[in-house]
Design brief:
Elements lengths: L12 E4 L3 H12 L4 E5 L3 H10 L4 E3 L2 H6 L3 E4 L3 H9 L8 E4 L10 H5 L3 E7 L16 E6 L2 H13 L3 E4 L5 H11 L1 H12 L8 H22 L8 H4 L2 H14 L1 H19 L6 H13 L2
Parallel strand pairs: 1-2, 1-4, 2-3, 4-5, 5-6, 7-8
Antiparallel strand pairs: 6-7
Helix pairs in contact: 7-8, 8-9, 11-12, 11-13, 12-13
């Protein structure tokens, strides 16, 4: 392992390919007292905006320039671009290169490792809808991976300073971890879209239906936060209401076979959680599981 310079809040940090995640992270780090020395962005208007938000950082177009000015460099580009970005930068020894992707292994940074740099992964389990989503760092879990103990420890402290917490992950565990994140975020939004489209026979379009469902969604998230699982699960699967479930499957299938398949598959996959509440008898469980299997 290459010895790294001392890692602390004064360590020069570079953020490469600062979009929504990178910009939010750069601002949050600067606000927390870290030394954000350089940031790269391809868009001139965005560079100007970043310069107005982080006074002491040099905001440049060229990623190489940003990398040259930092001891720890975060690559915050989309997953598909990280390995390419890493491959065309001239890294140096005694430098740390960190990707912020959820699914990519450390081997995506092999070009930096071969050059003598230490590598790491630092993935916030959060979505960032704008470049100034700094408030979304609070209470976030950060998946951290590094073979260098000093770098790993520093990233743990950094996660805490950002208002979150860290946990260790290995490259082999990343696909399953990232799939769970997609299920809890992107697929949840898609599922909500399917639910909203089921209002069309009522003469209510998807956009209007979504607005009407938001209070229910918020209450569900609050219940998950306050009660946890399985207590936050409600509805006919907890009660063992076979007739209601049968009517659901029939109605959804009449409207959309694909949506009916999604309903049945999701319900069947999560039925064991509903069962944990204790109100679902073995016979009801088997009956409902059989209905869902037929409806998928």
């Amino acid at each position: 392992m290459s010895p790294l310079p001392e890692l602390n809040k004064q360590t020069p940090i570079g953020i490469i390919a600062a979009g929504r995640l990178g910009s939010s992270m750069a601002i949050a780090l600067s606000n927390t007292g870290y030394n954000v020395a350089a940031i790269s962005s391809r868009q001139a208007s965005h560079r100007e905006w970043l310069s107005s938000r982080i006074e002491n950082a040099v905001v440049v177009e060229n990623p190489q320039t940003a990398a040259n000015m930092a001891n720890v460099v975060f690559i915050t580009a989309p997953d598909r671009n990280i390995e390419d970005i890493c491959s065309y930068i001239d890294w140096r020894s005694h430098q740390a290169v960190v990707h912020c992707a959820g699914v990519l292994p450390l081997s995506a940074l092999d070009r930096a490792r071969i050059a003598g740099s230490e590598t790491a992964g630092f993935h916030p389990l959060q979505t960032f809808p704008s470049p100034d989503s700094t408030g979304r760092m609070k209470d976030v879990s950060f998946a951290i991976e590094s073979l260098n103990p000093a770098l790993f420890y520093w990233l743990r402290i950094l996660a805490t300073d950002l208002g979150g917490s860290a946990f260790k992950i290995e490259s082999s565990q990343r696909p399953a971890y990232h799939a769970s994140a997609v299920m809890a975020c992107g697929l949840l939004a898609g599922l909500t879209g399917l639910a909203a489209e089921m209002w069309e026979p009522l003469g209510i379009d998807r956009a209007d239906a979504l607005k009407r469902m938001i209070p229910l969604l918020r209450a569900t998230v609050d219940a998950l936060d306050e009660k946890g699982l399985p207590d936050a699960v409600t509805g006919p699967f907890v009660r063992g209401d076979v007739e209601t479930i049968t009517s659901h499957l029939t109605a959804i299938a009449e409207n959309s076979v694909k949506t009916g398949n999604a309903y049945a598959a999701l319900a069947r996959a999560s039925l064991h959680i509903a069962r944990e509440q204790g109100g679902l008898s073995d016979s009801a469980f088997e009956h409902i599981e059989s209905l869902l299997l037929d409806g998928n």
